[in-house]
Amino acid sequence: MSFTKSVDTKKKLLLNQSANILTMLNLGSGSMALILIMKGHASLAAGLIFLAAICDMYDGKVARNLNISSDFGKQLDSLADLISFGVAPALLIYQSILFQYSIAGILLTVMYILCGAIRLARFNVTTFTGNFQGLPIPAAGCLLALFFLMKFYIPSVFFMFILLGLSVLMIGTFKVKKI
Amino acid sequence: MSFTKSVDTKKKLLLNQSANILTMLNLGSGSMALILIMKGHASLAAGLIFLAAICDMYDGKVARNLNISSDFGKQLDSLADLISFGVAPALLIYQSILFQYSIAGILLTVMYILCGAIRLARFNVTTFTGNFQGLPIPAAGCLLALFFLMKFYIPSVFFMFILLGLSVLMIGTFKVKKI
């Protein structure tokens, strides 16, 4: 009986933390993607960015459905998003393509990360009314990973404009409906 | 007169944003450090982590002294800290030393980043009473950068324990007095 109780408690604890576990998987995938980029496995890293996006899609849903949303979870989510959809895709594009543009490539990479952080910080202090303000960073990160996979069909110089465009769209003040 | 007024307005705007500008410099330094790590300039990257720490030391002080603290600034600060003192030092140690330990090196690197994110998320949802709970991530990041600079005097395998130790210390519940 005591054993059943202990299993039940552990199950409840796991269920309570399920959304945060998904967020940690998002962050873990993003961190692994960074290591793979450094090791030269860029396509695998792009795959991990998509995996992070899947985890990110479900952590909020799980939290709402199980009624276990928490401020801690929201903070963790933003931190994970900056790694998985800010730093990882920016470095993926830099390491594979933009490295050839010297200072311009570096500046655009850093700018994308800065704009992603501004987007996330603004989102965290704004009351959510069903619409996002500016392009959400997971969308920007997935687009970058997708463009990376299509890199043989896109002239290299276009990636500078893609990075610039996504940076501007993230800090834009237009409304985007939540899917 | 109109020109003086315009200059005054711009000066005021710059002053109001001075703390956030320092936070952006922190994040910019951390992002640049990541690029330098990928390019193999590890010592320069360590220098940028220290520069990020200096910016991080002053952004809060400037915000309090000028009475311009904001929730947006606090959010931006945490996001910057995760890059500059979480991701950058972890990848610095991985790329220079821990890469030789295969899966163990990867797991410890990812764990350090995860623990850093947990530390930051917990801090953001806790009312600050003058004491930090657990080792602050800027201290952990600077220690890692310092150990990296002393790497010729430290056996490589010790870096696994250093990463593990700092990870545990960050998520610990002991109190650390703010300097």
UniProtKB/TrEMBL annotation, chains A, B:
<keyword id="KW-1133">Transmembrane helix</keyword>
<keyword id="KW-0594">Phospholipid biosynthesis</keyword>
<feature type="transmembrane region" description="Helical">
    <location>
        <begin position="132"/>
        <end position="150"/>
    </location>
</feature>
<feature type="transmembrane region" description="Helical">
    <location>
        <begin position="32"/>
        <end position="55"/>
    </location>
</feature>
<keyword id="KW-1208">Phospholipid metabolism</keyword>
<dbReference type="InterPro" id="IPR000462">
    <property type="entry name" value="CDP-OH_P_trans"/>
</dbReference>
<protein>
    <recommendedName>
        <fullName>CDP-diacylglycerol--serine O-phosphatidyltransferase</fullName>
        <ecNumber>2.7.8.8</ecNumber>
    </recommendedName>
</protein>
<keyword id="KW-0812">Transmembrane</keyword>
<keyword id="KW-0472">Membrane</keyword>
<feature type="transmembrane region" description="Helical">
    <location>
        <begin position="101"/>
        <end position="120"/>
    </location>
</feature>
<dbReference type="InterPro" id="IPR050324">
    <property type="entry name" value="CDP-alcohol_PTase-I"/>
</dbReference>
<dbReference type="InterPro" id="IPR048254">
    <property type="entry name" value="CDP_ALCOHOL_P_TRANSF_CS"/>
</dbReference>
<feature type="transmembrane region" description="Helical">
    <location>
        <begin position="156"/>
        <end position="174"/>
    </location>
</feature>
<dbReference type="Pfam" id="PF01066">
    <property type="entry name" value="CDP-OH_P_transf"/>
</dbReference>
<keyword id="KW-0443">Lipid metabolism</keyword>
<keyword id="KW-0444">Lipid biosynthesis</keyword>
<comment type="similarity">
    <text>Belongs to the CDP-alcohol phosphatidyltransferase class-I family.</text>
</comment>
<keyword id="KW-0808">Transferase</keyword>
<dbReference type="InterPro" id="IPR043130">
    <property type="entry name" value="CDP-OH_PTrfase_TM_dom"/>
</dbReference>
<dbReference type="InterPro" id="IPR004533">
    <property type="entry name" value="CDP-diaglyc--ser_O-PTrfase"/>
</dbReference>
<dbReference type="GO" id="GO:0003882">
    <property type="term" value="F:CDP-diacylglycerol-serine O-phosphatidyltransferase activity"/>
</dbReference>
